[in-house]
Amino acid sequence: MKQLGILDTAFINLEHPNTPQHVGGLGIYDPSTAPGGFVRFKGVIANFERRLLKHTIFRSRLLRVPGNVDRPYWVEDANFDVEFHIRHIALPQPGDWRQLCILVARLHARPLDMNRPLWEAYIIEGLDNIPGVPKGGFAIYTKMHHSLVDGAGGSSIMSVIHDLEPDPAAVPQGQQVVNVDVSPGAMYLTASSAVNNVKNSVKMLAGGVGVLRDLGKMAVGMAQKRIPIPSITSPKTRFNTPVGPYRVFEAAEFPLQDIKFLKDVANVKINDVVLCIVAGGLRHYLKHHNELPDESLSVSIPLDMRTRRGMTDENNQVGSVFVELHTNVADPLERLKGVYASSQEAKVFGENSPLVDVLKLAGVLSPALTKPLVNSYSNNKWTRHLPLGISSVVSNVAGPTFPLYSAGAQMVRYYGLGLLTPGVGLFHLIFSSNGIMTMSILGDRDAMPDPAFYRECIEKSFTELLSAAKSSQSEKKQPAVAKKAVKSAASSVTKTSSRVQGASAASTTKKTATKRSAKSSLTTPVKKPIVKKAKSAAAAKPASSKARNEDEGNVVPIKLSN
C-alpha cells in the first residue's frame, strides 16, 4: 500500500465529468511481423497480462480515506480482471480515418471507473480503408489516469506494455503468484490521516516559507530585468470558453528530418519549430473564422521537473510555463525567431519561479476541501471571469528510436492524447519515433466542430515554414560564380550609366555638335545593352518568401506505411 503524492492527488481532485483527468495513446500495428503473420485477440490479452504482472501500478486501485480527510492510497486489487480493462471492437464499414478519429474521440471523452485500476485498452479492427495501413492492421487505444503517469513517464509506460522484438523468449508456464494488499480498516486509516495531517501541516509551513522566499527572489530578479515577466494577459479565443463533455480528435504527420532541417536552418530547438507550426495553424484557423486577435496568443508548455529537481517517488513530476506564439506575425521565419526568443524567456522564468508548481495547490489540501472547490469552479464556469488567456497546451514527447511490438505486431504509428481543463479546450501532443513526428489534436467539440479543417491548417503552416526555410537556404548557398555574374552585371550597368551621363553633359556644353550625332552617341550604342543587362540582373534575384508562401497549398499528409 502506498499513499499518493501531492501532485498525483491533484489530478484525482481535479477529476470532473466534463474534464476527466486521463491521457491516452493510439498505436497502429502491422501484424505481418508476428509469428505466422497474424495476431489473435487472445494473444494481445496474454501479452498485456504477462507484462502487467511485473508492474503493480496497473493492478492498483484507489483506496480513499474515510471522509476524504487525507490523500488516498494505492492498493493492489485482489479482484483484478484483465479482461475488464481490455476490450475488442471494430470500426463499421467502410473503416476509414474519419471513423477512427470519431471512435477515439468518444472513447477518450468517457471518464474512467474510479473504483477500479485506472486504465483501459481497446483493440480496434476494421481499418480497411485507411490509406497506408498494412493489410490486416489493427489499432490499440489506451487511456490511463494522469495520477498514474505524466507526459515524460508516458514513453516509459510504452516500453512496459510493448516488447522489443516480435517473438520474445517464451515465458515458462505455471502458476503465477501475485501478492495483493489487504485493505486496512477505517480506524487505521483515520488514525493514519491524523498523523499525516500533522506532518503535512509542518511540511506546508516549511514549504510556504520556501515559496515566499523564492517569490521574493523572483520579484527582485524581475525588477533587475534578469528574469522576464511572463505574458498572462494574452487575448482569449474560442478555446477559452467552458469545456463540455465531448471531444474531437485529429492528427497530422511530418518527416522528422524536415523538422530537424527547420531547427538547423533557424538555429533553434525542435520545440520551437513545433510551437511555430502550432502558431501558424492557429493563425490560419482563427483567421478563417474571422477571430484572429491583433495581439499574440499564448500556450502552456509542460515541464519535466525530473531534470530540475531530481527523481521522487511520485508518478507525476511536471510543471508548466507560458510561451507567446507570435500569431500576429505573418512571415513564418520571423515568427519562428519570435517563438525562440519567447521560449528562452519562459525557460529562464521556469528555472527561477516557484509558480511552475502551481498545479500542486490542487493536491496540498485534503480532498474534502479541494474537491468541492474544483466542482464549483467547473460547474459555475468561473473560467469566464479569469484574465488568463491560454489558447492551448502543447506537449512534446520524444518516443523510442527503436521498433516496438505488441503480440509480435510492429507499431508503425503512435498518436498521443492529452487532457482538457475547464478553461483550455485545445491540446496538442507531439510524439517522435522512428523518423516520423505526429501531432495529435484533442479539442472540445463545441469549440472546434471542424477538426479536419484545423488539421489542414496545421499542415499548411508546416508547408509554409518549410518552403520559407528552403528558400532562405537556397539564397545563402547561391553559387559564387552566379553571385560574381550578378555583381559584374550591376557594375557594368553603373559604369555604362556614368559614361552615358558624361556623354550627355559633353554634348550639352559642346555647341558645335550636331543633334544627330548627340542622339547616336547616347541611344544607339549604349541604351539597348543597358536594358538587357538590367533585365538579366532582375531575373537572377529570387522571388520573395512572402510571395511563395501565398501561392503554397496544403501539405500532402504522410500516409502510414509498413
TrEMBL record:
Q: Where is the composition biased (Low complexity)?
A: 493-511, 519-528, 536-546
Q: What is its EC number?
A: 2.3.1.20
Top class in the EC scheme: transferase
Give the record's pathway: Lipid metabolism; Glycerolipid metabolism; triacylglycerol biosynthesis
The O-acyltransferase WSD1-like N-terminal domain is annotated at: 6-274
Q: Which domain of life is it from?
A: Bacteria
Residue span(s) of domain O-acyltransferase WSD1 C-terminal:
316-465
Q: Which reaction does it catalyse?
A: an acyl-CoA + a 1,2-diacyl-sn-glycerol = a triacyl-sn-glycerol + CoA
Keywords carried by this UniProt record:
Acyltransferase, Glycerol metabolism, Lipid biosynthesis, Lipid metabolism, Transferase
**InterPro entries documented for this protein:** Acyl_transf_WS/DGAT (IPR014292), O-acyltransferase_WSD1-like (IPR045034), O-acyltransferase_WSD1_C (IPR009721), O-acyltransferase_WSD1_N (IPR004255)
The residues the entry assigns to the signal sequence are none
Report residue spans for region: Disordered.
493-562
The record's annotation in PANTHER family points to: O-ACYLTRANSFERASE (WSD1-LIKE) FAMILY PROTEIN, WAX ESTER SYNTHASE_DIACYLGLYCEROL ACYLTRANSFERASE 4-RELATED
Q: Which family does it belong to?
A: Belongs to the long-chain O-acyltransferase family.
Could you identify this protein by its name? diacylglycerol O-acyltransferase
